[in-house]
Every structure is written in structure tokens, then in C-alpha cells.
Amino acid sequence: QKEVEQDPGPLSVPEGAIVSLNCTYSNSAFQYFMWYRQYSRKGPELLMYTYSSGNKEDGRFTAQVDKSSKYISLFIRDSQPSDSATYLCAMSEVTGNQFYFGTGTSLTVIP
Amino acid sequence: DAGVIQSPRHEVTEMGQEVTLRCKPISGHNSLFWYRQTMMRGLELLIYFNNNVPIDDSGMPEDRFSAKMPNASFSTLKIQPSEPRDSAVYFCASRPSGLPSYGYTFGSGTRLTVV
Fold first, then answer.
1. Best residue in B4, B101, B108, B110 to probe A by mutation, most A CBs within 10 Å?
2. Any idea what DSSP says for residue B25?
3. What is the Cα–Cα distance from B42 to B44, expressed in whole angstroms?
């Protein structure tokens, strides 16, 4: 079993829709939870991170962590065509230098 | 800051040839990571360095792969001999010391095709 599981999609939604992206994990020592966005033929870039449980909001993006269920989510409100990309979740222990990545979910927002 | 710089951007080589990928991390970042990305397996960590010292190379597929970091501003990943199954995008990433919240900064990757 991989440390981090992520549905690869692809996911296709109309512009303006609410998008929900999810990951599950098995290592209860993970404390930092991150979302990366990767545009085609580019390297992943850090979108946002959350420490431990709870929610974090940044503009149209909301990250949620449920440690009891070992489940994290990224919500995108009012999705835009420019949000079309692959979204990867990543996780780390508090003292860990290594991040564990999901395989990524491909999202297309149709104008 | 120019970010993490990788070269070449694209590499096409014949099976059996030696391939060398290069990376310049962000100045001041003391951890460097080499990843391989494929559609089937996603991002796989190959090796990472702390302060130029290899810490974990358990992800290196086999002896055909080797990596070096001779100084804080340069690292190489070498494949010798290359095989078609090595075709993938290879990313280098760096991060500063401290909390994981600092995240990684990835380069733009090297797209390797072995024919």
C-alpha cells in the first residue's frame, strides 16, 4: 500500500463549478499537508499547506485536513479555466525532510 | 532569484548511452531532491541530499543510476547505460532547512526519451 493515495481522475468541470480534490494516507505521523499545482510541462508549485487538522482558506482555495480519517481535501470555488492543471497532495512528518506525494489528479475547467 | 535551474530541458538518446542531468538549486537551500515522474507511477523520489551529503538513495532504481552533489550549487544525476524504461520527466527540487511548510521549489524538469 502506498503511503499516499490520490484519485488520478481525470476530472472535467464547467467554469464556475466547485471542485473537490482528495487524498488519503496511512502514516499517522504526518503533520504537514500540502497541495501542489502542476501545469503541463512545468514543475509542481506549492499552492498551500496546512499544519495538523483543520481548514485553511486562501482566496478561492480551501484546504481541509481530517486526521482522524486520514483524509485531506482541496476545494476550489468558482473554478476558472486557468485552474486546469494536475493537483498533487504531499505530506510530511514534523521533522521530516522528505515529502510523500500522491500521484496527482488532472483537472480541466471548461469555459 | 532564478529558481531551480535544470538542464537540458529535453534529452533524446539511444539505448545504452550515458545520460547526465544537471541541477542548480536555489542559493541558500541546503536540501536537494531528485524525482522521476511518469504517468503510471507519479512522482518518485530517487535520492536526496542535505548539505551536499546523500541521505537517502533507496529510490534509485538500480546501479545504472548515480547522483552527485560536489558543492552547494550543483548536482548531477547520471544514467549509464540508459534503457527505454528510463524515459520520464526528471525533476530536481530544493528547499531550505526548517519546517516542512517551507515546501519544495521544483525546477522545470528534464524530459528524457530513450529510444
1. B101
2. P
3. 6
pLDDT in tens, A12-68: 999 999 999 999 999 999 999 999 999 999 999 999 989 888 899 999 999 999 999
Distance from CA of B108 to the nearest CA of A (A): 5
Give the distance from residue A44's alpha carbon to the nearest chain B alpha carbon, in angstroms.
Answer: 6
How many other C-beta atoms can be found within 10 angstroms of the C-beta atom of residue A64?
Answer: 18
Q: What are the two backbone dihedrals, phi and then psi, of residue B99, each rounded to the nearest 5 degrees?
A: -65, 150
pLDDT at A1 over 70: no
Residue B53: CB atoms within 10 Å:
8
DSSP bridge partners of B21: B77
Residues facing residue B63 across a β-bridge: none
In this complex, the residue of B42, B108, B111 whose CB is nearest that of residue A102 is B42
